[in-house]
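Incident log, structure service

09:12 report received: a user says their structure output differs between two submissions of the same chain.
09:20 pulled the input from the user's history:
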Amino acid sequence: MDSKQNLTRRNFLWTAIAATSIAAIAVDAQGKTTASRRRPNIVFILADDMGYGDTSVYGQKKFRTPHIDRLASEGLRFTQAYAGAPVCAPSRSVLMTGLNTGHTRVRDNFALAGGHVGHKGKEVIRRASLIEDDRTIADYLAKGGYATALMGKWHLDGYDPGAIPTRHGFQTFKGWLTQTGSTQGYFPEQRYHNETLIDLPENAGGKQGLYGTTIVTEDAVDFIKSHAAEPFFLYVAYDAPHSPYLAPDLGSYANEPWDEDEKTYASMIEHLDNGVGQILETLKASGLDDETIVFFASDNGPRSEPTPEQTKVINFFDSNGPLHGYKRDMYEGGIRDPLIARWPGHIPAAHTTDVPVFFPDFVPTALDLAGAAPQHSDGISLKPYLLHPNRKATDRFLYWEFYEPSFEQAVRWGQWKAVRHGRGGPLELYNLNTDPAETVDVASQHPEIVSRIEQHIRETHKASVEYPDPA
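09:34 re-ran on a clean worker, output below:
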């Protein structure tokens, strides 16, 4: 049944309000308000398990990322940006809903209760997923007149057939779902086009004809070309460089004196970087450069699984840079990631900022950029920082919680970073100004800071059906 036939009076009113609240206003880098031909396009490019040190512009020395570097040279690079969580699904839930992991629906790759039960291979798994009442940035922008699209990884469906991108604001979806094994991997045999499964004969029977990273790039490019005449929100969610380490070739690194996994990892990022370049060139060729703000980020720290083989690769490339920890860790290496924003003529080029920001900020930022009414979130609009990179940081708390393999929490407050292992465990406290690698716990020296952070944790964590507190 057409979803339009199911609009309740409440949803109709909500849609009307969202649509009429958007004004075609732009603010240039000097702060002058000017009439705009249209609202800006918003492109968010997300890498998967790419570490803080996995791009040249963030310090990578062994392989190159010229197109991501171009984003930074033509835009603003954040040096203290944080993902929504230390693993994939909750990080994306935070990005899409604007709610931190103390509030968002999906807080881990698995659920403690509720959700839906399914299979990952032979393993039985319970997963959380977005439900009908959850609103995403795609919902808000679509109902405000934007064309919305997701190319690639969703990871918020769990095993619920109704929790798919097209039911959460994305008018166009081309990619894969957690609940459909044939759509997964770097050479999938099938792929979703909206809610229809499409066969990929080039990859049938184990063939490796179409590479996932290339497919996502081509779909993104096609969408830009076909929607150049209207404002759009395009979410480009690559799988790379998530394990398994697999590429169609070794690219520029075939002759390096490295192990095969190391060559492959570098090539995976090269293919992703080339995809970023193609997207930028398509925007330019379509005359959309100064009409489009492009964000680039990663969903969490490096090392998809804590195996010796993957650890060797990540350590070889120093993928977490100067930071301590990997994916699944609440330390900086698990949650601090690259974030770059580029908008020619609006965001000053070749700037950096050390303002602490995190994924909940994307929803209010995108709404502010679109001129839309604000919605409830745990973030702030970064638009003032984008247009004025020298602006000083707002004093606020950033919060995370995580459940794998046991409950953990973390808080960033100014120069302070707190980490807790286990429910009710003592807080570790680090001064990131002097100890960015989190090597010296100074909690005993600053009881007043620990007490204030404890208060924020109590105020922020809310149990849910999927993540209940112990009885």
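09:41 both user submissions now match this output. Likely a transient worker issue. Closing.
09:42 reviewer note: The two ends are 42 Å apart (CA to CA). The longest helix spans residues 260-285.
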